[in-house]
Amino acid sequence: MRSTDVYLEQEIKRKQRNTPSTFYADQETMYEQIQKLKKLVHELTEERTHLRSKIIRFDEEIGRKEKQMEQLLQSKVRTNYLFTYHCYCLFAIFTVSGRH
Length: 100
What we know:
By secondary structure, the chain is an all-alpha fold. It has one domain. It is built from two helices and no strands. The chain has helices spanning 2-16, 27-97. The N and C termini lie far apart (71 Å).
């Protein structure tokens, strides 16, 4: 991300100086600029790869968390059902036996 910020700052400064986008420079200056841009492209490519791998890891983590939440909800529903059934059975036993 830092390399992107540096690039954007440079572009803002260039535009603030009102330099035309097409200008003529000597061959050595152009070569240096080309090398800097190649380096920037390489850094941005690495950054993109890193961010994509982070996204994949986060997606996998979200999937695990969703599955865990579903399991917890299912166990809670099952527990509530068993508790309700148990209470119903106790109520039936007490009612049949005459206890209130």
